[in-house]
Hints:
This protein has eleven helices and 20 strands. It is of the alpha+beta class and 382 residues long. Strand 12 (226-236) and strand 13 (239-246) form a beta hairpin. The chain starts with 12 loop residues before the first helix and ends in a 10-residue tail after the last strand. The model has no long low-confidence stretch (mean pLDDT 96). Glycine is lined by residues 112, 173, 187-188, 246, 250-251, 253.
Amino acid sequence: MLAEVADIDILDGAAVxxxxxxxxxxxxxVGPEAPLAAGVADATRAAGLLTFxxxxxxxxxxxxxxxxxxxxxxxxxxxxGYARFTDAAAARAFVLAKGAPLVxxxxxxxxxxxVIMGMTxxxxxxxxxxxxxxxxxxxxxxVVVEEFMEGxxxxxxxxxxxxxALPIGTAQDHxxxxxxxxxxxxxxxxxxxxxxVLTPALQQQAMEQIVLPTIREMSRRGTPYQGVLYAGLxxxxxxxRLVEYNCRFGDPEAQVLMMRLGAQALDLMLACAxxxxxxxxxxWADDHALSVVIAARGYPGAYAKGSExxxxxxxxxxxxxxxxxxxxxxxxxxxxxxxxxVLNVTARGxxxxxxxxxxxxxxxxxxxPDGFARRDIGWRAL
Length: 382
Ligand code: AMP
Ligand code: GLY
């Protein structure tokens, strides 16, 4: 076990500061989007704590889809055409004029659920009605309607100290719950890195046309972006366009990136927080990592908690094999399930196939009848 969970409200910046002071914490990494958007990194920085993670103003790159579009316009970054609306009648009229397919998005944070694919006019209009009807609460006060982009999606990760930017890898995840990319959408059922579709030329294009102009524009506005910028890209005919930004490492993307970066991940995050990313060097390993999520049966719908997970102590834990716990709790020396996505079983290998075989060997050694995993993570790249 590498870490302990503390019982504090991570959305409460003041409570996080008090915890850090009481426990002599000298470096804070704010991981998820909700505390970033709530200004927790602002609070810890204001208290003099060294912090990795964007301010609330900079985290708007994830927290407001309309804001991201505005930044793309300001720096001419390639992305889907769009329009922003604050009332349903105007949005419906626009959809009727444009015709399907269109993508309908709640502007704010909706835990990955605020995006509706309007493949038909009916779906697009229903999406508008749902969002303005309050399906996503305040996140749906504004709606962004986007052109539908064809292509293959991949994720590109860059660290920034506000001025400098350093690419740290690529990944692809699997959003659907079941094999063959079927079933309901989830937060991600597995991921692998690197993403072969993101060739060096495409990465360079994404840096020059999307990421660096964004970093410069955020800095020009007086809200520099410090942290990890996750660019979700759509690749079509040798061109990358921005689908969205996240202001975090992603889940399960973080797990494959951490396996590949190893201990230098901490040095790089420190370099960001201390504003000296220009001096930082990244040691690229020519390897692959793959992570398989084991989720509770029923996820992403209703699921039970509390069943025991066996077999974990038999698994290798070294620089090539790691089980990341996402939804577990320790109880009387046993590990029990306490969430929807419960474990990220992750392995590294010289090839993607080796990484996959090693990860699934670990999955097969885990004894948890109440869990399920996809058996085909990585299929697109393999
Ligand atoms: P987002 O939360 O903006 O990443 O959207 C969630 C998912 O919806 C993305 O990962 C894509 O699969 C899809 N998506 C979002 N916007 C578009 C678009 N303009 N065209 C096609 N697919 C999209
Ligand atoms: N796996 C996608 C995300 O973390 O947003």
